């Protein structure tokens, strides 16, 4: 049931608002306060889906209530109630974060329409937060080892900046997780996070994939198409396995980084892009440079900050936490009861040589949950976690 708070010092106006909202929809739970201070106490101690607040009030005016509410509960939409002489102030409250304003005496249709839209927006904001939290959890970095804590500390320092980051490490170590956490903790987190696996795209298509193309640029180009650089505008572009990119495309990526511009295939028109590039590779790019397979100037553009993700064998103390994390995640994904691992099973898994790193561990945990008993034992590990 949506909860609405009305803060209004004029009792007659307050009564009208309560009556309109109560009669319009019995599912609204309406509370009221006769001044700004009383209203703020309710806002601090209760959860409201919408606040209607008068601008001119004793003790604490509506602008002060708005500013205070936005600091402690910014998700609550605030609709300001303005008298005839308060119109300029009401417009200014919109700049301060108010959802809308309503003039006195309130027009019935306008009031109800504004309330409905504001409540819909509140619901949307809440859903978006839940979704973002869910997405963040999918990319959670699990571990308390010194190696993983070092990476977390690096991310905390690097993410708020605009510095380009090159992430290195073997396959399956979690380079993608690092890239996502950099984006999530950056000022660009509200923008898109676009991923490109450079090794998975055929060489003849990678340029079009990154920069887009115009109709007729090549045989299958039946219409104009934006590339990943344009799609990532305002956000982050994650170039995974960048060591597999051809030298010709590397040159164009270098230009895009230097000038902040791209050109679609088949067109010489520059398109400005505002993109932070995070790259990853499992190759030794310095060796690739010596073999003339990677441009040194591009390397230095990308490797402003270097983050090396350790292999699982270098952080074996994190394996129990990873097993717990994957067990819960798999149980939720498959709708099955969560199983536990006994100490000997965990100890045995800690001793294994995880050449496939975290990706391999996750697969083994899933296999054990499906094939093992109610509690995963040392015997289950020996039988099903084949190496």
Automatic annotation (TrEMBL):
Source organism of this protein record: Planktosalinus lacus
PROSITE patterns listed in its UniProt record: RESPONSE_REGULATORY (PS50110), SIGMA54_INTERACT_2 (PS00676), SIGMA54_INTERACT_4 (PS50045)
The protein, known as: Fis family transcriptional regulator
A Pfam family hit: Response_reg
Keywords linked to the UniProt accession: ATP-binding, Nucleotide-binding, Phosphoprotein
Residues annotated as domain Response regulatory: 3-119
PANTHER family hit by this protein: TRANSCRIPTIONAL REGULATOR (NTRC FAMILY), TRANSCRIPTIONAL REGULATORY PROTEIN
Gene Ontology molecular function terms on file: ATP binding
SUPFAM superfamilies linked: CheY-like, P-loop containing nucleoside triphosphate hydrolases
Classification via InterPro entries: AAA+_ATPase (IPR003593), AAA_lid_NorR (IPR058031), CheY-like_superfamily (IPR011006), P-loop_NTPase (IPR027417), Sig_transdc_resp-reg_receiver (IPR001789), Sigma_54_int (IPR002078), Sigma_54_int_dom_ATP-bd_2 (IPR025943)
